[in-house]
Structures are given as C-alpha cells and as structure tokens.
Amino acid sequence: MGITRREALKTAAAGLARIGGASEAQQAGEEAAATQPQTSKRTRNQLRGHEGVVHAVAFSPDGKTFASAGSDGTVRIWDLADEKEPCVLENSDRIFAVAFSPDGKTLVSGADGGSVKLWDTSTGQVRTSLEVPGGRPRGKAFCVAFTPDGKKLATACGLMKSTWGAGPAAVMLWDAATGNQLWTIEGGHTWTPAVVFVPPDGETLALAGGYEITIHDATTGKKRTKLATPNGGTTHLLTVSPDGKTLASVELRHTTQPVQLPYHQVVLWDLATGKELARSFEPQTEYITSLAFSPWDSALLASAEVGCWHGTVKLWDIAEGGWWFREFHVDNARCTSVAFSPDGKVLAAGCDNGIVELWNVRG
Question: Could you give the CA distance from residue 184 to residue 146 in angstroms, rounded to a whole number?
C-alpha cells in the first residue's frame, strides 16, 4: 500500500537527518521545512573504480549487489555488504544500459553498435550475445529491460543525431533463454528509443521515440494505443510505477521568447485511460538523463539531471502533480543515471567522474 504525501515527506526528511547526525529538535523541524524543496550534499557512500562516465546503474532484486557500467567498457558488480573489490566484466564497447533479471542470476548490458550481452552474475562470464540485425549502424543500445518473469528481454537501439550510413532505430523483443529474436519495431534514423514493461505481468510495454509514446502488446509487438504529446515535444525517457498505473516520461521542448532555448518537463500519464495526469510546472533547464520510480512507493520518482558545473538528483512527490521536495547535489560532476534499491531505502546516481553516489532516502 502506498503512503501519503505527508508520510513520505516525514520519512525522507528523517532519514536524511540521521545521515548528518542531526539532533532530535532538528529532526522534528524537518517535516515542516520539507514543504519547500530541500538540498543535500551528504552521501551514504561512494563507489569508485570506473574511468570515465558511469552511464548506467542497477540494483539486484535482493538488494545485496549493485551494477554500474560506463564509457570505460566495463560492468562492475559490487557487493554492498562489504568493501571488497567489485567483479569487473570487460566489454570492448562503451556501455549505456544494464539490468538484472528478476532472479538476479543474469545481467544484461547494452553498448555501442547495438551490442547486447547477457552475463552470468555468479561467474562473470558471457552467457549469450544477442545478434542485433544491422549491427553497428543501429547505433547504441540505450535501453534494456526484462519482463517480470524474466523469460523475455527488450532492447532499444538508436542514435542521438543523424549519421551517414546509419540504419533505422529499433526496439526488439528476445527470448532470454535462447537468444532468439521474437519481433522488431523500427523507427526513424534519429530516433532515441526507450522501452519499459508494465507490471505486474509485463504483457504490455510502453515505447518512446521521437514525437510519440505508444503502448504495445508485449507478445506480438502490435500497437494498442498512442499517448498524445502536444506541441511537438520529443520524448526520450520512460519509467513506470511499480503498481503499473502511472507512466513517467521526459519531454524535450523549446522556449519561443525571447530566444529559442531547450528545456525538459517530466510528464505523468494514466496508463488505464492514456490521458496526461500532470507535468512539472517548472520547466527543467538542466538536461534530465534518467528517471526511476521507488519500488517502495508508486508516488516517489527520482530524476538525474546534468547542469553546467554540477549534477543534481531530485525526488518528486507525484501524488501532488509533479511537486518535488528534495534534491541532492554533486559538485564538479554531472549525474547521468539513477536507481532505487528494491526496498526504496537507498538512491544511487552514476556520475561522469567515474563515481557512483549513494544516498539514504528513508530510514
């Protein structure tokens, strides 16, 4: 059962106060103070080892291990219970996406050239390499996702900008056990797709690319409906709430006065009706690079954002229509990816300085 907005604010404020060792009086004042956006730089821990940008982060289903991947072509699997060195999985290309299978026994990575690999998490060996039709011209594997039962896997490959000789972007569904391709949905040449399965059964998936969000039958790939994206905003990120009721997306738009400038908005959708619920009332001038719902509560959403001189992770209380109440700053680095632990207690952010930041977000 979800919590109320007041309870979420109180818990988040109390948890953060404990990190800094605040007094009881200070903790008592946190709930009232949290009615305005709060800023914190205090971290629970840092994971170091990557050389370059950390493009993707993910917690294992049991929350005991954590995966990070990046431009150095490695996946690092960390044991969060101790300080041992991580298991390093070597890949020849930059990695942009990672995800654990529901049983935690397999990790999938998506990289340059549409390269997709399934790794055995107990041995660190490649279990399967998926042969993406079209190969490197498909661009980067930006998104990977397992169905809730772990039997199927979706991959999304595309390009950030038009490139000579590039093939069309595509979302593909695979049999996770055999590596057989089941279906493909192709898009445009400058399409940067995102795909998520809708819980609890994963029989429906949402797909974003370019100027529209579409809802598909996960078995056949057939389109069921389209969500309206007015005023020409392009969508490049998707995430779905754990109860399967709400879809969150990020739209890129441009101001018209006094000059044309890009800005981002977080948009919330009702998956039952296909209608827009709300959008962040303040356009985000920082580039939003990642979105994640808390598995603990369907009303808590985190976004990672890239600023000029720092990175920011924001917590949103979507029960109040996109109102955000907490942000975390990372100085001299930009946040590129974000993920919650399965119990919702820890929030992780990958950064472009090779570090993963971990914060306690509730007690």
Answer: 16
C-beta separation of 220 from 190 below 8 A = no
Q: Is residue 40 part of a domain?
A: no
Q: Is residue 207 part of a domain?
A: yes
- The predicted model scores a pTM of 0.85
Residue 36 has pLDDT above 60, yes or no: no
What is the identity of the amino acid at 177? Answer: A
Domains held by the chain: number: 1
Write down the residue that tokens 């598909």 correspond to: 216
> What are the φ and ψ backbone dihedral angles of 314, each rounded to 5 degrees?
-115, 145
Cα angle: 31, vertex 32, 37; to 5 degrees: 85
Task: Report the SS3 class of residue 101.
Answer: coil
Q: Work out the number of other CB atoms within 10 angstroms of the CB of residue 166.
A: 17
Q: Specify if 237 maps to a domain.
A: yes
Identify whether 248 is part of a domain: yes
Give residue-wise pLDDT tens across range 315-338. Answer: 988 876 556 678 898 888 999 999
